[in-house]
């Protein structure tokens, strides 16, 4: 696994809607900028080899870092793969849509649900939003949220940005009716 | 504005650890980082002649304390921080002078130097822009500003800030030099003048 850079990003919201948020609402993101394992190979039919060589290692690297950056237990989480312009979106999907990647985060966070994800192709500096949902019940509406990320010089055309996001709470000032209380 | 926290809406931290540059690990692994506070502009609706100092004295020291705390905690302590820089992005309802007021007085700069145990003047960038504006923050050595290995920058951006009535105040820091820094320094530079360059620029 060839990593150029590791980015850590946290956002603490102290005021939302003009009212204080106490304690501050934190969302954390950690991203690894890696060389696309299939760069320069043309169309690769079977991605298994590159996935096996990288996906689990990336999950093991990012999961503890994002939980450390969060600094408290995760209640919502999500993931991202942003592929540089020479790659296929399928390359990013290959690295994040495997149990070998996601289970590191699920196990570390005591989570059970599927990780919501963004997959996208773009130039260096592309803005992307990582969706997050509750770690044990994806229907818990208070925890549906997203975090915006931008890395100025990544991904290069032959790179992929792989990221995990964690939130310590739901949305600040969340006040929507619970999913279960809505009439069908 | 919330009176209790001086109108600080968000605190954002961003860091980059460079493991490889041009395919090779740097001799020194450095972390570059920014801490940014999104704060309500306390001078909205004022006149160009207004004295800005009462709000500066109230707000700038708090920003200096909070942002240095974030960077020191995240980068491994004050001793680990070798370079610093600062920036402000003013929302479109404010004056550039409002951002300057928060970062260019002793109520911010002196305190940052004191908390980071540095002596240099702090290099800076300021701008006015919409939410999501990107600004490059220059950094240089906290004790010896002319140390060329430590000339570096980091980009800062908050997706939903500054709102028109807000200011994003940013403090940047680095724990080391540029990766593969190798452009000499003042002690090794040859004397360069137009006549020593000669034909190239004649």
Give your account of this protein's structure.
With 184 residues, chain A is of the alpha+beta class. Chain A has a single domain, classed as BB2672 (60s Ribosomal Protein L30, Chain: A), CATH 3.30.1330. Chain A is 23% helix and 36% strand. Chain A is built from 3 helices and 7 strands; from the N terminus they run ββαβααββββ. Chain B has 202 residues and is α+β, with helices and mostly antiparallel strands. Helices cover 21% and strands 28% of the residues of chain B. Chain B has 4 helices and 7 strands, in the order E-E-H-E-H-H-E-E-E-E-H. Chain B has helices at 53-75, 96-103, 109-116, 194-197; strands spanning 8-18, 31-40, 83-90, 123-128, 135-141, 152-156, 166-174. In chain B, strands 1, 2, 3, 4, 5, 6 and 7 form a 7-stranded mixed sheet that branches. The model of chain B has no long low-confidence stretch (mean pLDDT 95). Chains A and B meet through strand 1 and strand 2 of A and strand 1 of B. Chain B: This is Amino acid synthesis family protein. Chain B: It holds the Pfam family AA_synth.
Task: Draw up the topology in text.
The complex is a heterodimer of chains A (184) and B (202).
Chain A: E1 3-16, E2 19-35, H1 48-70, E3 76-83, H2 89-96, H3 99-109, E4 117-121, E5 127-134, E6 145-150, E7 159-167
Parallel strand pairs in A: 3-4
Antiparallel strand pairs in A: 1-2, 2-7, 3-5, 3-7, 5-6
Helix pairs in contact in A: 1-3
Chain B: E1 8-18, E2 31-40, H1 53-75, E3 83-90, H2 96-103, H3 109-116, E4 123-128, E5 135-141, E6 152-156, E7 166-174, H4 194-197
Parallel strand pairs in B: 3-4
Antiparallel strand pairs in B: 1-2, 2-7, 3-5, 3-7, 5-6
* Gross geometry of chain A: globular
> Which sheet architecture does the biggest sheet of chain B show?
7 strands, mixed
Kindly, what is the distance between the CA atoms of the first and last residues of chain B, rounded to a whole number of angstroms?
Answer: 59 Å
CATH topology of chain A: 60s Ribosomal Protein L30, Chain: A
> Which architecture of chain B does the CATH hierarchy give at level 2?
2-Layer Sandwich
Provide a count of the helices of chain B. 4
What's the name of the CATH homologous superfamily of chain B? BB2672
Low-confidence stretches of chain B: none
Which outline of chain B best applies?
globular
CATH architecture field of chain A? 2-Layer Sandwich
Relative helix content of chain B: 10-25%
The total tally of domains of chain A equals 1
CATH superfamily of chain A: BB2672
Strand content of chain A: 35-45%
